[in-house]
Design brief:
By secondary structure, the chain is of the alpha/beta class. It is built from 5 helices and 10 strands.
Length: 190
């Protein structure tokens, strides 16, 4: 069975964006990018909420073709263009979208069907709203949290609205020279 893996940058106090969606506080460098590439290498499907998908779609399809494209831009752009994308949205239609499936209802059934297909992992980048929905349905199998050395004080929370306790097992940690710490957890299911 394929795993649904959630990957997100967070502040130390648990916010994924500032009050107005600010994300300039996120620390990334070649070391972080190279590490994230090891995670994407194990995934052959990307999952997004509508807002994150629109943001990704506005950048990644052509990022690797730019004259000043970094190694990361070239590699991630190639990965992004190759993998099927799933978008959780009740407002988007799939018309005109290449290699993209829209899921707007029956979330658990649709995601479990995809998880039961042959393939590598399904990777959720960002998409806090979509992730909250997936978490409430116990569909996320693993978490990669990139804890940044900053306190935001307020903003969009990493997790919210859960009614059940979700127990996790720590699998590994990785400390980067920029001060970011990656925490890898798996969902502990009875």
């Amino acid at each position: 069975m394929r795993k649904l893996i959630f990957s997100m940058h967070t502040s130390l106090d648990g916010f994924v964006a500032g009050p107005k969606g600010e994300m300039a506080w996120i620390k990334v460098d070649e070391e972080v990018f190279d590490f994230v590439a090891t995670i994407t290498d194990k995934a052959d499907t990307a999952l997004y909420g509508r807002v994150t998908y629109e943001m990704m779609q506005s950048y990644w399809p052509n990022a690797g073709k730019e004259p000043n494209a970094s190694k990361h831009d070239k590699e991630h752009s190639a990965w992004y263009n190759k993998v099927p994308k799933i978008v959780l949205s009740t407002t988007m239609s799939g018309k005109g979208l290449e290699n993209t499936k829209i899921i707007g209802k029956e979330l658990a059934d649709n995601i479990n069907t995809i998880k039961n297909q042959t393939g590598k992992n399904i990777l959720i980048f960002g998409s806090p709203g979509a992730s909250h929905s997936l978490l409430s349905l116990d569909l996320i199998d693993e978490f990669w949290l990139f804890v940044n050395p900053v306190l935001l004080g307020k903003g969009m929370p990493l997790f919210k609205g859960g009614t059940e306790t979700t127990k996790l097992n720590l699998i590994e940690t990785k400390t980067f020279s920029c001060g970011v710490i990656a925490l890898h957890y798996e969902t502990k299911r009875n």
